[in-house]
Amino acid sequence: MTLPDQDSTLGISDVLALGGVFLVGALPFAHILARSAAGADLRTVRTGTVSASNVYVVAGPAPFALTFLLDLGKGAAMAALVRRRRPDLLAVAGGLVVAGHNWSPFLRGAGGRGVLTATGVLLVAAPEGAALVLGSAAASGLLGDTAPGCFVAQVLLVPVLAASQGRTGALLGLALALPMLVKRLVGNRGAASGRVYLTRLVYDRDVR
Ligand SMILES: O=P(O)(O)OC[C@H](O)CO
């Protein structure tokens, strides 16, 4: 993929490049690995999220590790590419690569929650944000469930990046947190009651 040279205007080539970023984000590595390693369709497993954690459930540690690296890697690769050519578009590109992962056209709009792909973007663009996400998820995981920690990190992403990088950081945090929080709310299953939405936000599932 060729990204345009640095220029503050948004031309057709920029729009095409950003479309390419979305499509890279949409590459459903978890789906491919779960299918090939275990013949499973992750959309029917537990919360139906097409993510590394569900790959672990159906296929074990090696496919999980590969999915983890690929989902992280696509976010990091897109962030590195865009930062080099159009740093002013980094927040937009970050939001798009996560949105592609969460609503993949290759899975008719199903997808993951964007945590690993957003972390890949953060590792390149704002390592303090990556530390926040990974640290919160790990601490929460030690208490038995990574989901509440991921939620806390998503809520804190904007203020933490605003404190470290000012307006640019706040925009990046917002662009990454928004598709992650929206996907937690809507999941791959759609409408629910108010109480279920709250459980989805905090615990990333419909029933606590
Ligand atoms: O949010 P995702 O789609 O990157 O998936 C996260 C993994 O399952 C690790 O919890």
Automatic annotation (TrEMBL):
Keyword list, A-Z: Cell membrane, Lipid biosynthesis, Lipid metabolism, Membrane, Phospholipid biosynthesis, Phospholipid metabolism, Transferase, Transmembrane, Transmembrane helix
Transmembrane segments: 12-34, 54-73
Molecular function via GO: acyl-phosphate glycerol-3-phosphate acyltransferase activity
Gene Ontology annotations for the cellular component aspect, listed alphabetically: plasma membrane
Single Gene Ontology BP annotation: phospholipid biosynthetic process
InterPro entries reported in the protein's UniProt record: G3P_acylTferase_PlsY (IPR003811)
PANTHER family: GLYCEROL-3-PHOSPHATE ACYLTRANSFERASE-RELATED, INNER MEMBRANE PROTEIN YGIH
Protein name per the record: Glycerol-3-phosphate acyltransferase
Biological source species: Acrocarpospora phusangensis
Lineage: Bacteria, Bacillati, Actinomycetota, Actinomycetes, Streptosporangiales
